[in-house]
Amino acid sequence: MTVDNSGMSVILFEKMPDGELRAIEERIWSMNMVTALEHVNYLVVGGREFETVEGRLNVDKGKLELLLVPMRHEE
Predict the structure, then answer these.
(1) Average pLDDT of span 23-42
(2) How confident is the model at residue 73 (pLDDT cuts 50, 70, 90)?
């Protein structure tokens, strides 16, 4: 698993309307950020808000993968 003193590798996937998954980004998260996932339902990435749907630990790749659904804001 890609974990060291600085954190863990996390990949964010956006679930598209047609069901396809699109990788938004991959970066190292601090362990504090990973722990915070226990308490949050929404993430802001690139100025866009997403609901966290589920996560999985991909042991083969050593990465935490999060499935996100974009929030639609009424204007």
Answers:
(1) 94
(2) low
User: Residue 75 has what pLDDT?
Assistant: 54
Record the pTM: 0.84
Domain of residue 44: give its range. 3-70
Separation of CA 20 from chain center:
16
Cα 69 from Cα 72, distance rounded (Å): 9
Task: Please name the residue that has the structure tokens 């204007």.
Answer: 75
Q: Which residue has the tokens 């999060």?
A: 66
For every residue of 37-63, DSSP letters joined together read: TTT-SEEEETTEEEEEEEEEEETTTTE
Residue 75 lies in a domain: no
**Bridge partners (DSSP) listed for residue 73:** none
Count of structural domains within the chain: 1
